[in-house]
Design a protein that fits this description.
The chain is of the alpha+beta class. It has helices spanning about 15-30, 65-85, 105-115, 155-165, 210-215, 290-295, 300-320, 320-330, 385-400, and strands at about 10-15, 35-40, 55, 90, 95-100, 120-125, 140-145, 150, 165-170, 175-180, 185-190, 195-200, 220-230, 230-235, 240-245, 255-260, 265-270, 275, 340, 345-355, 365, 370-375. The longest helix has 22 residues, at about 300-320. About 50% of the residues are buried. The model has no long low-confidence stretch (mean pLDDT about 95).
């Protein structure tokens, strides 16, 4: 068999926070392992990592024992420590989850129980006690979660990349992958470069299902992009910290919430509407081939039939600023339409099963010479350090058997 000249031991596709955390974890677990990260953009964290609300989630929402619950709780503490160690802007602010309708009260109480099962300190509040934390917020009851925080995830991603010692190649969009189980992988980029590695790690986020198929592995899911649209609050003094509604347990999105960011501004949102492109950051971005490929997945139509009422409400809030304001006023009655200024949107890479089910946990699968991260939406940024260690462990196991 001819000798293969490898460019690296582990080849990571995707320069978001999960890919960079994986590179960082490999460097800590196996010093001397050569890691190359391929990122199609001109810098790191240009998509999900750099376009979220910057919240360090506590882990209260997630099913006890799930990867999301375990990694978010552990990851929140580790992320706060990482930011402190490296001088990255962050704060542990705590947050309120507020019930504004009577039918939300049982769900709020269920969250209290879930938080306790996940080891998260929670304080229950009556309606009059909400003003202790947020004088302008109104509700029937609330819970205060003290371990929630905020940080600059773009700065975290940059620091992870630097500390990993990995070679990061920018402008390296992957167009073809040749995998040989007895040898490794060779990746062709749009620029015509060929990069060879012993093991491939797929952290491509919005494109992870496509990268899995290019590798020769059927992911069993398709990524459906949901755009999250935000506003900035022109009167940030109305909100002190983080305020969330009680989430709908049938849908993995957290609803329109208020987030005081590390810069002192207040983000309001997001809603969740289907995007017409993987990078469809507004309604004008339409990529017919991507939209048709999404529509061709049977799970999309089954999901639509199952959740059409929820989806109709989200579309209404996307099309009508007045409807969006109405949703915000449930929590913050003092807000006026003129107080909301359109801000940068994000896109959530949500994995959908063939039967229309939304994958509600992190999903990591392996193939020959490959590890694929196939579902890592929120709270993946919070949980990125534990996720990176798990992906690194699997990649190093594969590497060690060769």
């Amino acid at each position: 068999m001819p000798v293969v000249a490898y460019d690296c031991d582990v080849l990571v596709i995707g320069g978001g926070i999960v890919g960079l955390s994986t590179a960082y974890a490999i460097s800590r677990a196996a010093p001397g392992t050569r890691v190359t990260v391929l990122e199609k953009e001109a810098g790191v964290a240009r998509h999900q990592t750099g376009r979220n609300s910057g919240v360090i989630h506590s882990g209260i929402y997630y099913r006890p024992g799930s990867l999301k619950a375990r990694y978010a709780v552990r990851g929140a503490a580790e992320m706060t420590k990482f930011c402190a160690e490296y001088g990255i802007a962050h704060a542990v602010t705590g947050k309120l989850i507020v019930a504004t309708e009577r039918d939300e009260l049982p769900r709020l109480h269920a969250l209290v129980q879930r938080g306790r099962e996940n080891g998260i300190p929670v304080r229950e509040l009556g309606g009059a006690q909400i003003a202790e934390y947020e004088p302008e917020v109104r509700g029937l009851a609330a819970i205060h979660v003290g371990t929630t925080g905020i940080c600059d995830y773009t700065a975290v991603a940059q620091r992870l990349g630097e500390a990993s010692g990995a070679e990061i190649r920018y402008g390296a969009e992957v167009v073809r992958i040749d995998r040989r189980p007895e040898r490794g992988v060779a990746v062709l980029t749009a620029r015509g470069d060929v990069v060879r590695g012993r093991v491939l790690v797929n952290c491509a986020g919005l494109y992870c299902d496509g990268i899995a198929r290019l590798t020769g592995d059927e992911p069993g899911v398709r990524i459906v992009p949901f755009r999250g649209e935000y506003y900035e609050l022109a009167r940030p003094e109305l909100v002190r910290g983080l305020v969330y509604p009680v989430p709908d347990p049938a849908f993995p999105f957290l609803g329109v919430h208020l987030t005081t960011g590390i810069d002192g501004g207040v983000h309001v949102g997001p809603n969740a509407v289907p995007a017409l492109a993987r990078e469809g950051y507004d309604w004008t971005v339409v990529r017919p081939r991507e939209a048709l490929a999404t529509a061709a997945w049977p799970g999309v139509w089954r999901m639509g039939r199952r959740h059409w009422r929820y989806g109709a409400g989200e579309l209404r809030r996307s099309m009508s600023k007045g409807a969006f304001v109405q949703a915000v006023r449930r929590l913050l009655p003092a807000v006026r339409e003129g107080d909301l200024v359109r801000a940068e949107a994000g896109v959530r890479a949500q994995a959908v099963l063939r039967d229309g089910g939304l994958v509600d946990d992190f999903l990591i699968r392996e193939g020959a010479r490959a590890v694929h991260v196939l579902n890592a939406p929120s709270p993946a940024a919070t949980a990125s350090l534990p996720i990176g260690r798990e992906v690194a462990r699997r990649a190093l196991e594969v590497l060690g058997t060769r």
